[in-house]
Amino acid sequence: MAANISLLPSFQTKIHTNRLRPTTSFSSDSYPVGQRGTSGLSVITCSSSNGREPDSMNSEVKKVEKILEQKRRAELSARIAAGDFTVKQSGRFPSQLSNGLSKLGVPKEILEVLFSWVDGSGDYPKIPEATGSVKAVQSEAFFIPLYELFLTYGGIFRLTFGPKSFLIVSDPSIAKHILRDNSKAYSKGILAEILEFVMGKGLIPADGEIWRVRRRAIVPALHLKYVAAMINLFGQATDRLCQKLDAAASDGEDVEMESLFSRLTLDIIGKAVFNYDFDSLTNDAGIVEAVYTVLREAEDRSIAPIPIWEIPIWKDISPKQKKVSAALKLINDTLDNLIAICKRMVDEEELQFHEEYMNEKDPSILHFLLASGDDVSSKQLRDDLMTMLIAGHETSAAVLTWTFYLLSKEPRVVSKLQEEVDSVLGDRYPTIDDMKKLKYATRVINESLRLYPQPPVLIRRSIENDMLGQYPIKRGEDIFISVWNLHRSPNHWENADKFIPERWPLDGPNPNETNQSFSYLPFGGGPRKCVGDMFASYETVVALAMLVRRFNFQMAVGAPEVKMTTGATIHTTEGLKMTVTRRVKPPIVPTLETSALSMDSSAAGVTENDPLVGQTG
Ligand code: HEM
After folding, report:
1. Cα(536) to centroid of ligand 1, in Å?
2. ipTM computed for the complex
3. Which parts of the sequence bind heme (predicted)?
């Protein structure tokens, strides 16, 4: 493992959990400077100055930092433009020599062994290559310099740092080849190695037969009836967040939304996957802290130059590793306990299992798996649950964070969105039928996922020799498919950097990798496409709709500039600090249509006494 990751300081997935870091509990020295959130667990900041007065010393330091960053960026651009990263294409000498020896009668097998050390591309063109020092791209979110390199070197190039190299893919047809057409020739490579300690052989890192069996067991659990039931859960969880925001609006406190979204989606995924209420919007300790300890460890391991945790005695003497082990134990015990409770429920149930089976009391994925008679070891089941917990948590939180950031700059889009939400939902909880009607809200999420794909790169390793476009590659190549580059490529998008939900027609199909020919892959593609795509789309639409219905959001005065940092998903460096105000809706003139709307509400099980009714005004 060490060999694979030791040269990857800025080129690995880092699972970033800084916004939820309890400030009192963790040592600061394990986090890279400039990548830390400042909020800790105090997510609603409440300072005597309302958090609005920027500290003047701080702002001077930030100005200097900004100038230095611009300088670094300009230097990197100049070096790329000047061909500083370009490696001269090697000549065809090895292939000429091989041909010559072959003509002299040297057997093919011997030539293959002799020339296996040289680029096996023979007479094929050679993949463009960029080389340089890690330092040149280390200072910022790594997918940013990759974008500039893509503009210079094209849809596939090799990036070499010392003895380590990666293929960077930004070409839709090559992405399609790797993810879909020849997916069998690729594994999860580095990703599986980093995540092993937390996800084991769960669905994201697993490859081969284990993956095939587990995918076949898990996909059916996310059937339409289950997703429809989850919409209620999304509504209730978002309502808890609304109550928090309501209090902040009353008190005139600014809120750090990235942290709140992380908690919202943790609460949702816990209930959805194994019927466990983390209640992280009100509770920081115990299991919630353990989850974040483990996530942060995955992040730290991904950037560590030496895998010291592999030294056997280390985990017994390092306080940090002891803490990680304790957190993992707590999570595993909790999961084992939940599995046992669920098994008992299933045993007591009069079970009639069918395709859309769902237990009304416990509609979780775990319950479905056990009821289906899934023949699986407890360890594998735990790995799968843990995988879904992580996969479905950080991603959705990041989508909401960047959506609200984008909206803060586009009041026009917000007004259109609020108009739609008012007319479709009124004051009721969303239902599955509303998902088709909230078309503009869906387009806002589609466009947010284009600009901020979560994760920004997909990682693969070739396990066979293959052809990528016109280039042959050998087995063992580490590959980054840059979804960021695909989604912002000037070859495919007009005004690629602009947030324009209207680019997706309301009456058109929901954009996905197939109808966008792999230029747009918010949920990946091919056999390893996200299993939670529909779940996540509805979850983010429900949260977005319910939040903009009740509140207006603006960047807080004096809030730190929103900058990106690399994680498994894209995080902000210092949180998303916003001012929330209750929305004053225009008065509704009673018409026939309005009464139809309130009939709708009662049909959806919402009465006038329901906490949601009348709260938007
Ligand atoms: C907006 C939220 C989400 C986004 C953007 C997202 C994105 C993705 C992407 C891009 C992949 C493909 C990774 C690859 O090919 O390497 C993936 C895989 C996966 N996602 Fe999601 N995801 C989201 C939410 C969820 C949720 C809610 C769940 C669970 C309920 C989930 C479970 C998974 C699993 C298990 C895989 C691995 C599938 C496999 O390898 O067979 N995701 N996700």
Report:
1. 9
2. 0.99
3. 530
